[in-house]
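USER: Fancy drafting a protein?

ASSISTANT:
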Amino acid sequence: MMSGSAPPPPSLPAGSGSFFRGYTKLCKGLAVILLLVHLVVQLFPSAVAYLALIPARTIPFAWNLITAGYVEQTIPGVIVSIIGLLLFGKLLEPLWGSKELSKFIFIVNFSTSACVFITAIVLYYITQQEIYLYTPLSGFYGVLSGLLVGIKQLLPDQELNLFVLKIKAKWIPSLVALISIAVSFFVKDLMSYLPVLLFGIYMSWIYLRYFQKRLETGMKGDPSEEFSFSSFFPEFLRPILDPIASIFHRLLCGRSERSDARGQTLDTSPLPGSDSIEANRRRERGQRALEQRLAEKLAAVRSSEGTSLDAADKV
């Protein structure tokens, strides 16, 4: 039974070996794919032309819209992608399930590549510079930034330690986007990653906000105020952003009003207080999933200790 006050934010299980445990089969499988594709690209550099997203060649090589997301051309890139995938998937898969997580990764990866392709074509027609058509674009950063948005949705109040700072998970996607934009002005090589990262954040939010099916309610999307578009920005910018976001809301979400069998209009706007209730439900789901994972680890430790004691008794 839910009380009137919001439950405390879930905390991550602590332990000296917890960093190396609890990774799911799906994420470990995708990590192997990232590593293998990176090795193929290093051994056969010409493979980049067939796997990465090159806008001038995307029309005949349409599979690039899918494969480009799994091509990391640098060693630091593949290391960051694998570590991020394992850590973020470790949090999200117990809450979503393997099927939903794989669906999320596919949709975010494909939609991000499609948006990057369209942006490159538009920039070419504006500037007439062929670099936008022939530069190979790739990387898993779109999916990684999308997974951060998923963590923002499900565990918004979870505090993450970033060096000497403690930052709530709900601010991590915005912080990553801001730092990436700032650094790209000084490091030109990062400019090719910036569209992938920004579109990954936006397209994952679009999917989670309007299209993801919630098993507990049978509805689609997340209408809570805590997950609105303006929630990615500081408080003082929200009065400016909310009217703009409402326009895209009407375009993307046709469920604000619908007609019944008699042709009458039904108002499906959320009831007062439903936003906070939905946020509480997300926190409770995160709490249960994390507690279950901690209990499983504790049971495994006790089982190993019992096996050791039995062996000692026999000796």
The chain has one domain: 21-227+270-314. Strands lie at 159-162, 165-168, 257-259, 265-267. The mean pLDDT is 77.
